[in-house]
Design a protein that fits this description.
With 250 residues, the protein is an alpha/beta fold. It is built from 9 helices and 6 strands, in the order H-E-E-H-E-H-E-H-H-H-E-H-E-H-H. Helices cover 35% and strands 14% of the residues. Strands 2-1-3-4-5-6 form a 6-stranded parallel beta sheet, sandwiched between helices. The N and C termini lie far apart (37 Å).
Length: 250
């Protein structure tokens, strides 16, 4: 199976909703997977069908080669999504997923299929410099220790050498994707953007969230919610409340 594969491979754990009037694509953080969004349909209006995006190299696509370049990932995903454009599409992305979502929104807009909304979570505006230390090319022990400091990978997973052997390729690819990302100036999106950040998150500060306002001509809002960089795992309800309301309003 290649990364330019069927839509079914990219969308994992989808709960079909025959009455759906729009779809919400959900993109995870670095090292994350589609299972992060398993329970989201329960907190969103019945007319919204959640599509958790499964990137190559994890969970149901563990045997596939992960993609470590933004252009390759966005091109493959946009191609796979063509059959899904029969309904209005909104995009949600957390951390790395927010950057992927932004570039995917640009790519779809260029094809005449712009999303209706872009929801950004725990990520600075793309035009701002990246303040994070580069870790993608570190040797395994140093890379794993860096993951431990970032607190995105559970400690039992980090201590499981056999499991880490399986996960390291996707983790490295994800961090390489973010670290090699180069923003190219372009026209602002014509869809509203809502940005969310954790109150204890030093990796996406309030002023860095507010800077997303320049990337849209259709309205911008931002909000801080309880938690650190990974607030979306433990306390997504404040975010889901806003997402659900905006999607219900159209």
């Amino acid at each position: 199976m290649t990364t330019r594969t069927s839509l079914e491979a990219w969308v994992a754990g989808r709960k079909p909703r025959p009455q759906a009037r729009r779809r919400l694509l959900c993109l995870p953080f670095a090292g994350g997977a589609a299972s992060l969004f398993r329970a989201w349909p329960d907190s969103l209006p019945p007319e919204v069908e959640v599509w958790p995006i499964q990137l190559p190299g994890r969970e149901t696509r563990l045997r596939e080669q992960p993609l470590g370049r933004m252009d390759a990932l966005v091109t493959a995903l946009a191609e796979a999504l063509r059959p899904a454009l029969d309904l209005p599409l909104a995009i949600f992305g957390h951390s790395m997923g927010a950057l992927v979502g932004f570039e995917l929104a640009r790519a779809l807009a260029a094809q005449g299929a712009a999303p209706t909304h872009l929801f950004i979570s725990a990520m600075r505006a793309p035009q701002l410099p990246d303040r994070q230390v580069r870790i993608a090319a570190l040797p395994d022990p140093e890379f794993i220790e860096a993951l431990r400091r970032l607190k995105g990978t559970p400690e039992p997973v980090l201590q499981n050498a056999e499991l880490m052997d399986l996960l390291l390729p996707a983790l490295r690819a994800d961090f390489a994707l973010v670290e090699s990302y180069a923003y190219a100036a372009g026209a602002p999106l014509a869809c509203p953007i809502a940005a969310f950040g954790g109150q204890q998150d030093e990796r996406a500060r309030p002023e860095e969230l507010q800077a997303w306002a320049t990337q849209t001509t259709a309205g911008f809002q931002w909000q801080l919610v309880p938690g650190d960089h990974f607030f979306i795992r433990g306390a997504p309800q404040p975010v889901l409340a806003v997402v659900g309301r905006m999607l219900a309003e159209g």
